[in-house]
Amino acid sequence: MGGIHKGALRSATVDDASSITDFVAAHGLIMPKGPEAAARHWRGLWADNPALAYHAKDVPLGWVLEDEGSIQGFFANVPLVSWLNGKPVRVVAARAWVIAPDYRSETQRLCDAYFGMENVDVLLCSSAIPPVGRRFMNVGGAKMPQPGYGEILYWVVDAPGFLKAAFRKKGKGPFMAGMLGLLGSVPLDFSMRIAGRRPYGALDNITPIGVGAVDEAFDDLWSRRKKQLPEVMLASRDAATLSWYFSLGAAKDEVRFLRYDQDGVLRGYAVLVREDAPAIGLKRMKIADLFIDDDDPAVLRSLLAGAYEYTMAKQCHVLELIGLPQGLRAEVMKTKPMSRPMATFPFFFKALKPALADRLAAPQTWYVTAYDGDTSLI
Hints:
Elements: E1 8-11, H1 17-26, H2 35-46, E2 62-67, E3 70-84, E4 87-99, H3 107-115, E5 122-125, H4 130-138, E6 142-143, E7 151-156, H5 159-169, H6 174-195, E8 206-209, H7 216-228, E9 234-235, H8 239-245, E10 256-262, E11 265-274, E12 284-292, H9 297-313, E13 318-321, H10 326-333, E14 338-341, E15 348-351, H11 354-360
Parallel strand pairs: 4-5, 12-13
Antiparallel strand pairs: 1-2, 2-3, 3-4, 3-9, 5-15, 6-15, 7-13, 7-14, 8-10, 10-11, 11-12
């Protein structure tokens, strides 16, 4: 059915950074503050991105819906690359989909542009709200099938602070929430100690580093892991890509890699990012990625223990983890984390080639953490 369209649709460019940021922030999304930070953010995604080397030169970066010189809609893409059987898989991750209320009738135009892309292999959305998830499903997409992804695993590090935030979330005032948190922390602490609800492991080989200290040892680990997991689709984890990705957020100076070195070889790492919820006073640390040589359980235990200790040192209330393939996740479960379901399942994909679609329908093809897509782009 035809009709008169509202506004003009065009490709987004890095020069749109400031106006895009203002528009998106005005509609409730958290964005960098100030024109310099905005330009740095979008240039990082769209110009300095190592994955662009594997994409066509005209890969769409996104689309802007304009009317009389004013942005009324925006869909962003983040070009990424994953690897399967030693070959690159060109991925485009959806990011910051926003349409002004008076222009919601034009949503389909933006969706047609996104889902009609060529010269890419997989469309991905790792932070989908329900309407976006339905869009993926309606065009033949699917939920990412990795088991357990819809459950957030967490370890309470500071029981009074954690419970105070929980009561604040339920609508209690600061004083009452604090009192209830203190009262509730005694039985919670006791039950966690009795149940052993925390990770334990040797910390001798653990070293925390900032993003700037990621070195060629990460390239060596990445090369080994690709050979160990040829049938698994792995997002690029070479040193350049890791440094790029975790330098994009406003909290990049707080990102910590916990590296596990043994006999001069990097055997694994965990990436910790800070993601507080100031409205309820929750101080939260998240494990954004875990990558371990041969999925060694001893290395995993040490990295989880190191992450717990680091969370405690930073006086955070809780340590969270999402994702991981079934084998590693089973090892994590031995530390007896608590869990809660995500409010809505956020991770959808659409493979644009039938053979790839068949491969990605299998749960064992995925190795997804908060590093995949735009989940950890703070």
